[in-house]
Amino acid sequence: MRCELSKLHVHAYIDGELDAAGAANFEQHLKTCPDCSSTVSSAGSLRTSLQQAELYERAPLGLRNKILSGLPSSAPPRKREASAIRWLALAAGLLLAALLGREIFVTTARLTEKPLAIAAVDAHLRSLQPGHLTDVESSDQHTVKPWFDGRVDFAPTVQDFAAEGFPLLGGRLDVLGGRTVAALVYGRRKHVVSVFVAKLQGSEALSGEGEMQGYHWLAWQQNGLQYCAVSDVAPADLKQLQQLLSRN
Amino acid sequence: MVEQEERKRFEECVLPHLDAAFNLARWLLRRREDAEDVTQEAMLRAYRFFGGYRAGDARAWLLQIVRNCCYTWLQKNRAGEELTDTMEETIPDEGDSPENLAIAGFDRERLASALDSLPPHFREVLVLRELEGCSYKEIAAITSRPIGTIMSSLARGRQQLKKALTQPKESEVRRAV
Question: Are A71 and B47 in contact (CB under 8 A)?
Answer without folding.
Answer: yes
